[in-house]
Amino acid sequence: MSREIVLYIAASLDGFIAKEDEDLQWLFETEGEDDNGYLEMYQSIDTAIMGKKTYDYVKGITEVFPYSDKKCYVFSTSEQGSNEDVEFVNEEVIHFTKKLKEQEGSKIWMVGGAAILDAFMKENLIDEFIITVTPHILGSGIPLFKENNPQIDLILQGTKCFGQFVQLHYKVKNSITKHYM
């Protein structure tokens, strides 16, 4: 049985994860509730993967790296090796992730990076989607999903409201079938 990859992310009502200049201020100005379901998801994972831009963004807004208690991989073409928080990965993202899924462990959180998410979508690597919809119509920006993805059938696991946020929780239909066989 392989490990599941979960996408836990926020998006505007019109499907953008950031403005074109990668600004997320609109997201932080939204009234939520408690941690908006973050802790529940975070406790289900033991590994986080992200792109270098996402890593740099997180490092830029926090004094202490927030995922230091998890194994973190950052896909990068410029950084190599590791530091106290992450291991930089210079190999192809799909190949590396498929090997990672076969290792022992809990769920893997695909933190971000539009390019990594797009690659995962094209290969149908996401097993669980937890998408928090914000009360914004941005009109343009970085889309949650890019074009030309395969059809992926989902099964609704539930919805929750957190203040002004609405969280949609889906599992991939084929993923549920293969985990119960």
UniProtKB/TrEMBL annotation:
Q: Which Pfam families does the entry link to?
A: RibD_C
Q: Which GO terms describe its molecular function?
A: 5-amino-6-(5-phosphoribosylamino)uracil reductase activity
Tell me the ranges covered by the Bacterial bifunctional deaminase-reductase C-terminal domain, including all copies. Answer: 5-164
Q: Which lineage?
A: Bacteria, Bacillati, Bacillota, Bacilli, Bacillales
- InterPro entries noted in UniProt: DHFR-like_dom_sf, RibDG_C, Riboflavin_Biosynth_HTPR
Protein name, per record? Bacterial bifunctional deaminase-reductase C-terminal domain-containing protein
Alphabetically, which GO biological process terms does the record hold? riboflavin biosynthetic process
The signal sequence is none
Q: Which SUPFAM superfamilies does the UniProt record give?
A: Dihydrofolate reductase-like
